[in-house]
Amino acid sequence: MKYCRFLFENQTHYGAVEDREGEPWIMRLIEAPEEDRSFRLEHHRSTSISLGFESMPLSAADLLPPVTPSKIVCVGRNYRDHVKEMGSELPAEPLLFFKPVSALNKPGGVVRMPAVSARVDYEGELAVVMGRRTRNLKEEAWRSAVRGYTLANDVTARDLQNKDGQWTRAKGFDTFCPIGPVVSDELDPEAGLILETRVNGELRQHGSTLDFIFPISKLLAYITAAMTLEAGDLVLTGTPAGVGPLKAGDSVEISIPGLGVLANTFQPEQS
Ligand code: MG
Predict the structure, then answer these.
(1) By three-state DSSP, how is residue 140 classified?
(2) Same structural domain for residues 50 and 182?
(3) Which residues have a beta carbon within 5 Å of ligand 1, which is an ion?
(4) From CA 24, how far away is CA 16, in angstroms rounded?
(5) pTM over 0.85
């Protein structure tokens, strides 16, 4: 199934998303998925009934990030063509880093370009949503640990990434991790998903998950050999070739068929 998280009548709700004549619609309210540990289920039940929610187009909803992770684990250099464009060596093992949960941003949200950076890049990515607490996952059991998939923009202050020598600040500014609009388990990265990124409507990234250096099975085994992943945690699987800088006012759209479009605009931070 496919779900989103959104504000309705000033309350947070989850909704089941289905296609209606080619457009995604929120068809009904659903109980919070297991991966949202903080959601107050009883409150949700009572308000759902009293609201009398009617279906609405996803595009008309006040969307929130669809999951509330305890951590966001990211993989650098996981598409062969992106490694080539960055002039890097093919990694022998996955390269991991974190984005803080304070960087989360919603579909349609504004990404604030920090004054301390002269170059902010988009990175369109497929994100894995964990479905349960997972430690020491065996590669062959990886699907049992996954709730579904969503889209992410691993926004990066490229100049600071190079200058700092490690990536925490460059990847970690507030608003630097838009995710959404939906979580879906109705697709299979191993069958090849086409990820595209557009800037102001112009195609900049076009990659296939078949170009992964490390498949999701290997990434999850590698990550959970080091740390416990909780239900709702995100694993960003890397970006294909075509990354590049943005300017104030740019709009970035990331898409994978079945996951919809994650659209965000970029603006200078307010002083
Ligand atoms: Mg990335």
Answers:
(1) helix
(2) no
(3) 123, 154, 239
(4) 10
(5) yes
